[in-house]
Design goal:
3 helices; globular
């Protein structure tokens, strides 16, 4: 699966700017109250890299650092930041990175990433009827 120029723009280091409805999204995917309260205070830095067709995303914060590697279009096992294991697949669709996760109960959520016209990294998160958004600015 070839990465378009729009997908290539996601590579680099990104700093959290703001978000909306993130607590609702976390609640919908089953994250407990205490962890949701902590997560609201975190302003993560994201590092996206690609090497030989294998991609990685690393999320760093003062509380926790997590990362995953993937080959586009190939399902992989992932441990979410809340410790839940899920099956994930990331596909590149047009200029967007579409990450679909399925937890052990079969509940799906989708995280879509892209760089907008202002050069910000946009992240849309959907689970059930809940939609949340976060956005980041480039730091490198």
């Amino acid at each position: 699966m070839q990465a378009t120029a729009g997908i290539q723009k996601l590579k680099g280091t990104w700093e959290y700017v703001d978000g909306e409805h993130f607590d609702d999204y976390m609640k919908e995917i089953g994250v407990g109250f205490a962890l949701r309260q902590s997560a609201k205070l975190i302003k993560p830095k994201l590092i996206i890299q690609e090497n030989g067709g294998k991609w990685s995303l690393k999320s760093e914060s003062t509380l926790k650092t997590a990362s995953y590697e993937f080959t586009p279009g190939t399902e992989f096992d992932e441990t979410r930041l809340d410790g839940e294991n899920c099956k994930s697949i990331i596909k590149f669709e047009n200029d967007k990175w579409v990450h679909t996760m399925r937890d052990k109960n079969g509940k799906e959520s989708t995280v879509t990433r892209w760089v907008d016209d202002l050069g910000q990294h946009q992240v849309d998160m959907k689970a059930g009827s809940v939609t949340a958004r976060r956005w980041y600015k480039r730091v490198d």
